[in-house]
Amino acid sequence: MTRAVLSLGSNLGDRLGNLRTALATLGDAVLVVSGVYETPPWGDVEQPAYLNAVLLVQDDAAAPRDWLERARAAEAAAGRVRDPQRRFGPRTLDVDVIAVWGDDDEPVLSDDPELTLPHPRAHLRAFVLRPWIDIQPYGRLPGHGWLTDLLTAGPAAQDALDLRPRPELALESTA
Ligand SMILES: Nc1ncnc2c1ncn2[C@@H]1O[C@H](COP(=O)(O)OP(=O)(O)OP(=O)(O)O)[C@@H](O)[C@H]1O
Ligand SMILES: Nc1nc2c(c(=O)[nH]1)N=C(CO)CN2
């Protein structure tokens, strides 16, 4: 059994539809869904605003690596085309594996460039930390500490002021 926190981001096409595609692709593995936030682009500012959200997922059989494969499958389902020339550039859907916990509830650590855990830039990203706090207010980012401390006092604190909650764009339809 592994549990994981996945971050979702989209700034091209039907942004909300792309996030929902991720949810549908992950299916029964999804335990909890955050609110949706509209966020200014981070890392490469010459691109449209993103919609971001975070999921808590769990699967009895999934190994840490399987979450990366499922993330890639979700991105493909949303028609993501990679531009190797442009780091942090626009995309229909980005699904990052932020952190993974094993059977013993211990965080999985990895410095494999194919799957680095926790995600090496998560602590810098208000667009990850803020929605994650929605679903785990007392959560910790392994190796970095409390999410609330990172969001209020770390390098992400300034960006946190520019996130816009979009409650009308709920990922899970209430109909
Ligand atoms: N925790 C992780 N989650 C997702 N991808 C990862 C992770 N660790 C390493 N990678 C690797 O990062 C590579 C680039 O992924 P991607 O194109 O999504 O990057 P990016 O979205 O531009 O940047 P970022 O990962 O900072 O959001 C992939 O080949 C993937 O194998
Ligand atoms: N606000 C925001 N900015 C980003 C995002 C994202 O999901 N949200 N993803 C990126 C890909 O690396 C680069 N920049």
Automatic annotation (TrEMBL):
GO molecular function, a single term: 2-amino-4-hydroxy-6-hydroxymethyldihydropteridine diphosphokinase activity
Domain of life: Bacteria
Record EC number: 2.7.6.3
Alphabetic keyword roster: ATP-binding, Folate biosynthesis, Kinase, Nucleotide-binding, Transferase
Gene behind the chain: folK
One Pfam family here: HPPK
PROSITE patterns, alphabetized: HPPK
The name this protein goes by in its record: 2-amino-4-hydroxy-6-hydroxymethyldihydropteridine diphosphokinase
Catalytic reaction(s) noted: 6-hydroxymethyl-7,8-dihydropterin + ATP = (7,8-dihydropterin-6-yl)methyl diphosphate + AMP + H(+)
Organism: Micromonospora vulcania
Biological or metabolic pathway of the protein: Cofactor biosynthesis; tetrahydrofolate biosynthesis; 2-amino-4-hydroxy-6-hydroxymethyl-7,8-dihydropteridine diphosphate from 7,8-dihydroneopterin triphosphate: step 4/4
